[in-house]
Structure formats: C-alpha cells, structure tokens
Write a structure and sequence with these properties.
The chain has about 150 residues and is mostly helical. Helices cover about 50% and strands about 10% of the residues. The structure holds zinc ion (ZN).
Length: about 150
C-alpha cells in the first residue's frame, strides 16, 4: 500500500503490513453474491453501498473515498483480522456475526469501529496489531471453536 499520502497510518501499523497490503480503487466494491447463493439473510449486507471491503491482504476502496485516511485505517484492521484468524476462521466469524447481529454490530466490525473511533478522536498512536491480538484471543477463547453457520 502506498501510504505516502497518509502521515498517521505508519504510527499504527507495522511497515510490513503497510508494504504487503494491496489497495484497489473501484467505483463499486465487490461483494459476494450471497443472496444468489441462497443466503437470503445476507441481503442487507449486499445492499449496503460500502466504501471499502477487504479480502485477505487486498482492500477494495471506492474511488470517491480514496483520500480518506480513516477508511484505510478501517480496512487495515480487517487485514490484521484476516491474518490473525486465518481465512477459514475469519469467514466463519464474519458470517456468523452478520447473521446473528447484523453488519454494524457483528463482533469483527465492532472491533474495527472501536479502533477507528480511537483513531479519529485521539492523537496518541497505538499498535493496532497488539490490540487486535488480545481482542481476537478473547473472541476465540470465549467461542472455543469458530462458530459454524447452521446450514439448513
Ligand atoms: Zn469493516
């Protein structure tokens, strides 16, 4: 990720996270066609016109939001979540959170929005990875195993 335009991100993220993250600018972010796959209850998620979405180490960011540092901060937290949980557990937690609580209250998004709020309100930098490590440790130890979707 070319973070040269963003002065604050390097104070919150390791160099190697910033260097290995790819950012793709798009007019509309790609969302998996979950309702077409029969997962009608995820229709709400599909209909949100999101400013960004992250898969593994690639962030898709809407062109009209490209300059917003806080959005890049948000997507980078997801990069760390994908890394720490691994793809299978990330998807299981994310889908389970969406199903049970909805987008904004799903646990992985709550974690991100909490950190993003600190980024927006506070000036004191912190290590996002360290905070995520302990938050994810809590999440996985309470849940034991990653939640599974109850397939019909
Ligand atoms: Zn998010």
């Amino acid at each position: 990720m070319n973070s040269s335009g963003f002065k604050r991100l390097p104070r919150y993220y390791d160099e190697n996270i910033l260097a290995s993250t790819k950012v793709v600018f798009v007019s509309r972010v790609p969302v998996p066609p979950l309702s077409a796959m029969g997962l009608a209850r995820f229709g709400e998620f599909e209909r949100i016109d999101m400013a960004g979405i992250t898969y593994l180490d690639t962030c898709f960011v809407r062109t009209d939001h490209a300059h917003i540092e806080s959005l890049h901060f948000h997507e980078l937290v997801h990069v760390i979540q994908w890394r720490l949980l691994g793809p299978e557990r990330f998807l299981a937690f994310y889908a389970n959170g969406l199903e049970r609580f909805g987008y904004r209250k799903s646990r992985l998004e709550v974690m991100v929005y909490r950190l993003q709020g600190r980024f927006e309100r506070e000036t004191q930098p912190f290590s996002v990875e360290a905070v995520c490590q302990s938050a994810i440790r809590d999440l996985t130890s309470h849940a034991g195993r990653p939640p599974s979707l109850d397939c019909p």
